[in-house]
Amino acid sequence: MHQFSRRVRTPLASIGGAVFAARANTSNSSRPRANTTTKRSFCSSNVVACATKYRLPPEPLRKLQDAPPGPSLSFDPSEKYVLLLGNLPSPSVEEISRKKLKLAGISFDPQLHLPARAGWHDTIEIKQLFDSNNNILPTPTSIPLKGLPVGKKIRMRSFHWSPSQNGKATILMRIDDGKPELWLLEINEKNGKSTASIRPLVQDRDLFGIRGSPATWHRDGKQVLVSVMPENAKAPPKKAPLPDGPVIQEADGSSKGGGRTHTNLLKDVHHENLYEYHTTSEVFILDLESNKRVDILPADMWRSLSVSPDGNFLLASRTVKPFSYSCPDSRFSQAFEVFYFSDDRLHIINRELVYTRPIQENLPSLFDVCYKGYRSFNWKFDRPNSLRFTEALDGGHPKTEVEHRDQVSMIHGPPYIIGIYLPYLT
Description:
disordered N terminus, 6% helix, 27 strands, four-stranded antiparallel sheet, five-stranded mixed sheet
């Protein structure tokens, strides 16, 4: 039997700028009982007014908090150059208070189309570690960078080097708290002297960076695949005053064990519409020499892009409906497709569905649990265009007794048909 004690509201009296709170006395006597305690808290009117504003800690604590952290390092693929990226000591109040959306287990900024806690760099410095003959320099040489906006607030993130080792890298940049822009860093060497410059690539479109960098390099380093928000996108969907119907979830008993608890899941149709709106993007390819843009992937819920080692194929994954109210975005159904590039590698001439992974709702809360069926699709980088993937031989359940847990297989395409593959590792 539970026993509850009733809380008695205590009257307050203000005397001379002080507030007194006394325990209620139920007796008729004006003399307080021996076990009655009187609580006093003094709060002047000036202190109350100051409490509505942010206050600074003592100077030693401010210096400790605002001390500049060490720089982050980003090496180019040849390891000849390194970027020293200055890190901000802590996010500002304005950045922390920005509106964020939390849908299907992911948190993002709906205006910038970036993760909610995206880290930024405020300075960049280029160091050369080896000379033109690939001899290590006793002291790294600083390379001046030309093209950075002067006298403006600059924030940078998502540095991605070209895999062709041509000294180029894409950078996501914000200028004076504006929308993110895609810029290109170029390091050139001539007559034994290295120079560096930076220039804008995409400033007129809203970049899509919720799932990572909006830029994906082509293997030859001459083109960049750019993920952007749909050009004809309307305003975000608004919640209807009244729902069209109830939210129905069924328990069919197929799950043999309790699943993990996830936060920020989808709850209703409005959440579904918001999730689809903010995770939909389209992709165009940008030629760096001519600045020509060619749309290659229409608007859809694209998740990842990867170009084959020979540069002739594109592996892409996208989210497939229906959504789930009981598992996060990472367990939603996904379709894996291979796109065929034209000879100039600026157009798509064929599209082939490789595999559609079903939704993974009833995974048990055990260690080493994985998805049923095929997973981890990627290119095998020591071959021109072979697709590699993994299959769980135990059905994804670690308690199933099997000789081998996983089997890694390859598809020597084209064509890329999941039924025609060669197991090469178990």
